[in-house]
Amino acid sequence: MNEARVYADGFERSFAEVKDLLEFLAERGRNAKWIRKPTNTLRLAPLEKEAQNLDAADASMEEILEDTEKNTQLVLKMRGESYPVRDCAIRTILSRAGVNGDGLRKLYSGLKLNFQLSGVTRIELESVDGYALSGTVGIQWDETGQPVIGEAENAGSILVFNAPDENGFTPGKDYSIFTLPCDLYGGYRLSIYKDGLVAHYFGVHQTVEPGTFITPGDLAESELEFDDPDAPLVEEERPELDATTTALLRQYQQNQTEENKQALLNQMGIR
Question: If pLDDT is split at 50, 70 and 90, which confidence band does 53 have?
Answer without folding.
Answer: confident
